[in-house]
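Changelog excerpt

This revision adds worked examples to the README so contributors can see how folded entries look when concatenated. The first example is reproduced verbatim below.
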Amino acid sequence: MYNNRVLSSIVNKVKEIKPDYICITGDIIDNMYVLDEDYVRNNLVLFLSDLGKIAKVIFTLGNHEMKEAKNKYSDLNYKKIIGYLNKIDNTFLLDNEVINFDGVYFIGYNPSYKYYEHEEIDELLINDFNSYKFNILDNYNILLIHTPKDLFKSSIYNKLNNFDKVDLILSGHTHGGMMMSKIKGNNGIIAPNKKLFPKNVRGVLKKNNKYLIISSGVLRLSYSSKVFRYFNNLYLPSIGIININKF
């Protein structure tokens, strides 16, 4: 079930921040059952609607939406997700699309479920990303991509089409490496693929004047983690505030 207290606190905090844009990089849901129960489904829609009243909400999908829809509930339920999310005022689900707001271009890329299913192999990401032929111009370009895995590694960085034109990358997926928020650094304890002591899974990374910001998320442990999800109280929810002064 969605925790309405947490959702309300997020909305109230975002109201205080007064952002120009709100970006969400996937894993809005954990299990498809939330779309099959009217009560919970309506809370999700209400939450996103409340955010949309504050500022434009731009978001992409994560592996949790992909996994539940494609693997367990078929392609029809994937379209069901898209249908619900596309009906919310002032929210924009970018399903491998580019959108422009006042000279700021948002690129929303959703890696295929095959990529997540096969332990995030570099070549699968490169070939999939390049197949969409995003029309990325010389503007200020923000890429929303759920997974940050090795994006700054040369074997990926130099092979993504027009990647040099991307100024800012926003990601999630790694749950902050399951590290306490007050511990500094970009490394973690465990990655989503169950590998121990992963590098570059949280915080801010920089390469060639390009920034990659990896959000730890509102909840570190998902419903699917079973009893371990009760340890969420050990980790502070993460909302990143990004100031872009000039572009």
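The second example, added in the same revision:
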Amino acid sequence: MKLISGSSNLPLAQSLAKILNVELVKIEINKYANDEKRIKILDDVQGENITLVQSFSSPVDEHIIEFLLIVDALERMGARNVNVVIPWYGYSLQDKVFEDGEPLSAKVVANLISASYVKRVFLLDVHNTSIAGFFSVPTHHLSAIDLFTKYAQDNYDLSQTVIASPDFGGLKRAGKLAESLNVDWVNIDKQRNLKTGEIIQMELHGSVEGKIALVFDDVSVSGSTVAQAAEVLKKSGAKEVHFLVTHGLFVGDAKEKLSTPAINTIVVTNSIYHQQLPTNTKVIDCAKLFAAQLKDWI
């Protein structure tokens, strides 16, 4: 097996290649003057099993098109199979149709991938696990919960720790981490203005007095929810608040929001590449999760 990387997350692909002790295929990714992507694979891949690594992170549409062009180039060069690692699946938050006239965007992207030369898909902590069923090729949904469990065991006094869900939707996720660590968990209810989407109220259910609170979530987009949740937890007596999240999109001024003194540390996987993160951020390498799944194809 050989690995090839798109432009969205080369460091993760390099880490994965190192763990698996396989080569990274050389590729040129440029743009024509009219802003179209130009892809050229430089190494011979004929008869090879190839794994393509590409996060559908910002710019999302550009990275998806780039992904599809690379897959087509691999097919035309005679690659035997193309498996794909998509650490962050862009459009995964658009997994339902709420109003007439809206597309089921997560399925549209899945259809594009399924209709290409891709033979197998590996995803990480998609917001709705049923998204794996949108694909018509074998799809594996991986969880980062073991990574966060190990990190928590190594870095926190679990006798003083509670897990906090930042909203009702994360209850099941927080409960799983609490169970894996054998600690209690609490919930924060939030209410939004239905017109503006702004959070207007947050209420804590459970006690965090004198505790280390670990706020656990699958994805952080703007940072607003966890920043406000951290304030609530600190005001309710938590001595420390740490934010554990698989995917850090951190759009707009999210990094500034997450730099609040109410959050002691942010612990995030490298599913999405950032040139710079808040100084209180710890990054966990998720390459080992994909390596464990891909070793059978070496």
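Reviewer comment on example two: The first helix runs from residue 10 to 20. The chain has two domains: 2-142, 145-284.
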